[in-house]
Inverse folding.
């Protein structure tokens, strides 16, 4: 049954005017505490036939609750989003339209509702919710996060590198961004021509069965090739990570369809940013492959040569993400010469040990870039923390057979990964590495109260949208 539902704050002025119609529930409305809501049927209390139900909520958190500044989040916003999640779940199963009157809550409510009503399953198995009438920019951002969740929650037999590309193509089409966005697909023969030996070393165990690809996403690509992108983003897109010959254990193996979260988040973020409106030129590179054992797989102890000529000893085949991104960083730095160079990956257990699922890590020697990234996270009400890039961490990893080791067995694993990747940036002065190993999983290391159930969280898609939109306004 199609429903028409309106959600209003108990302090919304139109509600207070209609005193006669609400005389029977006036005490219930006035007694609503912050974080509580009441659903009223129009048949009994509301004479406007436009709506079947009215949801009245109290979001007066700021006056009623002490805020904890140490959390690093906007506590009022977090509590409000949790309230909307509870409202959404109470109305699950009702198809139709949801109206949110214009007021200070509208943008937050729309974004929280969209995030709260995410569902992986479709068709007859899908959960049903009302859709928002006349959605705002916030819905575009939340829809992008849901898209990132959707493709990352897909099992690896469905979301292969090739089908990842198809999903992005469909998302670009759904958002009507075909005129602004150009997608270019590079196959493994092109990777060989470019001498991307680091990337290919991880892919070689699957070539011929599940082939690797590089997906290039160009926004506002100019005809003049001398124009530099404002940012070139590199996303780790390992659609299934078995660990290779250094195979993962059973428990972690079940989660490894998520190892393409960096590529999914960045693809979603750039499409949404273009939809909202961008003037500058941007590039996203998604390195897509599986990491599987087999007769052709890279072995522990193998030495491979990256695109920039550096030799890498593969000390552990489960350090695959940095191998994929190494070549893409160098390709982006030398081919496009962007003003900023940023990679994002579900990369290290060290990041999980440091922050769990409560925050992402950023590593950079460029203070201004870190400030801009942190501002984006703050605007999206998400956490990021700067980790050190002390050169001594990398210098401590002595290599007998190559220039670098992909993994060094010491306690600084997250920082080591960032320092390793920095070697492939062509000494770019504005480079940042973002590790989302803990935050991209929802419910494993921490749970986000306002996100509908799902293994992937889609974080920090909205943080990157905010970063991109703010950067685009600069000269």
């Amino acid at each position: 049954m199609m429903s028409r539902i309106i959600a209003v704050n108990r302090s919304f002025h139109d509600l207070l005017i209609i005193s006669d119609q609400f005389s029977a529930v006036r005490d219930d409305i006035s007694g609503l505490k912050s974080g509580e809501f009441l659903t009223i049927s129009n048949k009994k209390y509301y004479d406007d036939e436009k709506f079947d139900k009215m949801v009245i909520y109290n979001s007066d958190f700021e006056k009623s609750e002490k805020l904890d500044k140490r959390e690093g989040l906007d506590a009022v916003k977090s509590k409000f989003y949790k309230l909307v999640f509870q409202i959404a779940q109470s109305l699950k199963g009702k198809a139709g339209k949801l109206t949110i009157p214009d007021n200070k809550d509208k943008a937050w409510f729309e974004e929280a509702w969209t995030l709260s009503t995410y569902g992986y399953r479709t068709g007859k198995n899908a959960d049903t919710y009302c859709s928002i009438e006349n959605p705002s920019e916030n819905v575009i951002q939340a829809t992008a996060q849901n898209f990132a969740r959707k493709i990352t929650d897909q099992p690896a037999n469905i979301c292969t590198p090739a089908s990842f590309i198809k999903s992005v193509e469909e998302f670009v089409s759904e958002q009507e961004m075909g005129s602004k966005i150009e997608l270019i697909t590079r196959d493994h023969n092109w990777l060989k021509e470019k001498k991307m030996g680091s990337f290919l070393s991880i892919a070689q165990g699957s070539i011929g069965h599940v082939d690797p690809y590089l997906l290039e996403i160009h926004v506002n690509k100019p005809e003049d090739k001398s124009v530099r992108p404002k940012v070139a983003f590199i996303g780790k897109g390992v659609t299934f990570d078995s660990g290779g010959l250094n195979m993962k254990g059973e428990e972690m193996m079940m989660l490894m369809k998520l190892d393409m979260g960096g590529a999914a988040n960045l693809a979603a973020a750039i499409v949404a940013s273009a939809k909202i409106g961008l003037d500058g030129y941007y590039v996203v590179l998604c390195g897509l492959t599986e990491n599987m054992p087999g007769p052709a797989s890279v072995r522990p102890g193998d030495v491979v040569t990256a695109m920039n000529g550096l030799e890498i000893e593969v000390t552990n085949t489960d350090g695959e993400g940095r191998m994929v991104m190494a070549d893409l960083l160098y390709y982006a730095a030398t081919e496009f010469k962007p003003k900023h160079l940023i990679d994002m990956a579900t990369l290290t257990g060290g990041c999980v040990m440091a922050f769990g699922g409560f925050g992402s890590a950023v590593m950079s020697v460029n203070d201004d870039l870190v400030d801009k990234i942190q501002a984006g996270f703050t605007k999206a009400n998400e956490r990021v923390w700067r980790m050190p890039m002390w050169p001594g961490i990398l210098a401590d990893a002595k290599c007998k057979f190559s220039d670098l080791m992909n993994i060094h067995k010491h306690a600084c694993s997250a920082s080591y990964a960032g320092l390793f990747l920095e070697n492939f940036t062509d000494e770019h002065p504005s480079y940042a590495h973002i590790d989302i190993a803990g935050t991209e999983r929802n419910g494993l290391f921490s749970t986000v109260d306002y996100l509908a159930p799902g293994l992937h969280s889609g974080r920090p898609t909205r943080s990157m949208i905010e970063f991109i939109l703010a950067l685009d306004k600069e000269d």
The longest helix spans residues 137-153. The radius of gyration is 24 Å.
